[in-house]
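Thread: Newbie trying to understand structure tokens

Hi all, I'm a second-year student working on a class project, and my supervisor (Dr. K.) asked me to get a predicted structure for one chain before our next meeting. I've only ever worked with sequences, so writing a 3D structure as a token string is new to me. If someone could post the tokens and maybe explain what I'm looking at, I'd be very grateful. Here's the chain:
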Amino acid sequence: MEYIRKSIYSLPEIRRTLLPLWSAWALTAVGVACGVVYVMVPDLSTGGASALVGGVLVGACSLLLTLCYYLFGDSRRPYSREVHAVLEPTYAYYSSSLQQAVTDALQSHDEKALEHIKRQATPELALVRYSDKEERVYYSQLTRVDGTRYIPLTDIIINKIK
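---
Reply by user tm_fold:
Sure, no problem. This is what the structure looks like when written as tokens:
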């Protein structure tokens, strides 16, 4: 599966983008605000000071988790310049006996034929697709599943729905 993840970024119409974590940044802002109030107001009751310190701790934990997600997690997604949308991956699994049918449907850009091919729960073949929420564009690659490895069987096939 690394093949499509690396190759999709080499396409000229794709760029990398970070997924925004608005709620985490909002909690960090709350922590900063609590810290400012704690420092600026000298005459706080014990309960008020404890609540502000708690807010600072929540903000610090949120900031730490957000930075760890951006540094070590799966925070990047491909962004299509053509449709101006983030592309999300989906996976469909097929029997290895259906390889030719899936490949033919992909290469002919026939989405209806691809929908009618029977899927299965245990992966022998995996169809990895990146598309936007409205499904206006697909970047697809058929792979063979070998344990935990995904071995590419096709190049990246681009299908643009008009």
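A couple of things are worth pointing out once you decode it. The chain has five helices and eight strands. The chain has a mean pLDDT of 87. Feel free to ask follow-ups in this thread.
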